[in-house]
Amino acid sequence: MNLTTYLLELKKSWLERKIPNISENNAEFLKELIRGRKPKNLLEIGTANGYSTLQFASAFLEWALPDWHITTLEYAENAYTEAQFHFEKTVMTEYITSLFGDAKSILPTLPGDYFDFVFIDAMKREYLDYLLLSLPKMTRDALIVIDDVEKFRPKMENLYAFLDEKNIPYRLEKTDPDDSIMIIERSSILY
Prior knowledge:
By secondary structure, this protein is of the alpha/beta class. The protein contains 7 helices and 7 strands, in the order ααβαβαβαβαβαββ.
């Protein structure tokens, strides 16, 4: 089974089980960002069942982008285990490093000045912590993408306050009728 077919089956499964994952619109928008930026090392904070990770992998494969790798972090053991199963089943373990544990503990152990694309989609009230801990791990030209910033805004007011206080520019992209993603250029953060 190819990756595209597998993703369709995985989507059907998570819809039936009511597992929150990125929407099809969101996935397509993120894949276009990857196509445009051509990152080498993508960091994902919040793996869930691996659907978004495999969507990212499909973008790299679809456009034959060379020498890429995804590092993904997940705190919930059941989600981590399921994601591992999907990565192995799709033979993506060569391209995906999946780490289990609290991202706030794992992030300091990752290599610095390494990731050129960071996707944050985990515990909403901890988004600011994830952002701050991942900054030293990013290349200067990295792109930061933060999910669920409209419908869960009340849980991340500290993130918005930080961005406003530090005059960090960001843009919101409406990817779903009820939600948006935030895009920040690492180069605009003088922190």
